[in-house]
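Collaboration report, partner site 2.

Our partner group contributed sequences for two proteins of shared interest, and the home lab folded both. The records are reproduced in the order in which they were received, starting with the first partner submission.
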Amino acid sequence: MKLSTKQKQQLFFLLLAALWGALIFYLSSVPDLKSGFPSSYDFVLRKFAHMGVFFILTYFIASSFDSHKRSYLLFVIIAAVTYAMIDELHQTFVPGRHGAPNDIFIDSIGVYFGVWFYKVKPPAKLFKKRFV
C-alpha cells in the first residue's frame, strides 16, 4: 500500500509526538532535575519548560490528525492533558520528584497554546516547502 503525501506527513508528526512524549517521560525520570540557577529562577524556568514541552507535544499530536474539526481538536486536548496527568503521576514514583496538580494546570496552558498555534499556523503554513 502506497501512502499519500498527507498520510506520510501525518505519520511523521505522529512519530514526532511519540518521540517527544518519550523525551518528557525521560526528563520526568531524572531525580532532582534542576537547572543550576538560583531557586527562584529555577522554579520559573521549570514552569515555562512545562508549558513549552506540552505546547510542542500538542502541536505534534494535532498535526498528526491534520484537521481543524472541533471533535479532533477536543481529542487532541484530552490526549495531551491526560498525558500531563500520567506524567505527574509518574513523577510521584521518582526519588526527589513529586507530582503536583498545579503542574497539570500549567501543562494545560501549554496545551491550550499548542492548539491555538496549530489553528493559526498548521504545518502547511508553518513549513512552506514540503518536508516529508
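Second partner submission, folded after the first:
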Amino acid sequence: MNTAGDIYMEGKVKESELIGKVHSAVYHQCRHWGYAAPADVLVDVGVLPRQKYEDWRFGKEQYLEAVCTCKLKQLLFIMKQIRSYAKKTNLKPSFCYYKRWGVEKKQGRKAVIPSASVKAEIRRLKKHMRCIM
C-alpha cells in the first residue's frame, strides 16, 4: 500500500484534506478575529489539543512542538500551508509574542519558549497574519 502523501495525526489524513483544513481554519479565524495565529490554527486543525495548548501557555510544557500530536515534518507542512494561504489572500505578517499565562503582574510576564529549533524558518512561523478585508 502506498502511503506517500499521507499525514499522521490522530489518524491517517491525506495531504489534500489537511490543506483544506488549514486553509479553512485560517479563513474562519480571519473572519472571526481579524487575524490568524499559527497556534490557533494548529488547535483548529486538530494537531494541538486545547488542553495541551493551555499547558504550554501556563508553562507546564517547555516547547509547543512537544505537545503536538504530529511530527515536526508535518508541523512544517502545516506552517507552509498557512504561509501559502496568507500569500494567496494577501495577508500581512506581524510579530506575535506569546506571553505565559498565570503569572502575577508584579513578577512580570515571561515569554513562552515557542520552539526547540533555532532555524529561521521556525521563528518566521510564529507570526500573526493580519487580514485585509
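Feedback sent to the partner group on the second submission included the following. The CA atoms of residues 23 and 84 lie 9 Å apart. The beta strands are 6-8, 12-14, 35-36, 92-95, 127-130.
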